[in-house]
Write the structure tokens for this entry.
Amino acid sequence: MLSRLASLSRPKAVAVCALPAVGLLATAVFAPLPFTVAQPGMTANVLGENKGEQVITITGAETRRTSGQLRMTTIEATGPDARVDLGDVFDGWFRTDQAVMPRDAVYPSGETVEEIEEYNETKMKESQVTATTAALNYLGEDAGDIKVTLRLADVGGPSAGLLFSLGIIDKLDGDGSGGDLTGGRVIAGTGTIDTEGKVGAVGGVPLKTQAARRDGATVFLVPKAECADAKAELPKGLRLVPVTTLKGAVDSLVALETGKGTVPGC
């Protein structure tokens, strides 16, 4: 998930001794580079409200009162038209609360700002439809009988799919035995999802774990393929739970809640 970074500190001062190199170095320092600088972004509890709107609204079926939180996570990145120079890159490389990423890894290349925003909005909408289908398929419910509306303002991209699906399941069925999937905890995570419930890798996981811990999470669901990235700069007090499928994520949360069964780790 991606949101816009409002400002960025840009150190400009560079001391050099070889005078003939000053012009070349200055050109390199101030020349725009094809990178984006990202930092931990906002998180949102999909079981509750975001900016005054309920994130998940379900009609056509009885819903449960839930406890705990399921927080989707984001990164904030400099905009696709922002100027990133060598000073920004050096600053980002030497900080744990920022990451320097190829611009093409964050934004589709060769597109205007308006087209990129439209693309991210489309991906978010597609993710919401897919997440709903995956959750109802998991529960064996007929999508024609149940209507799910998902609202998450100012966030684009597909990486909240897993958390959307888990939120729908928790509101409709909980842990399947009368309890909550969260067990009263603050659970965070990231991951795309397809209609069959397969969880896909995303990006910016080390930044998302920081955002999750900042906002009170003690457990982080991470696509298994990104375990190594998540472990690299894991905040203290945050437990990683790798997932590859929606069922696996549900099973892990139930095992955490009940103390029965195995909870995988990275």
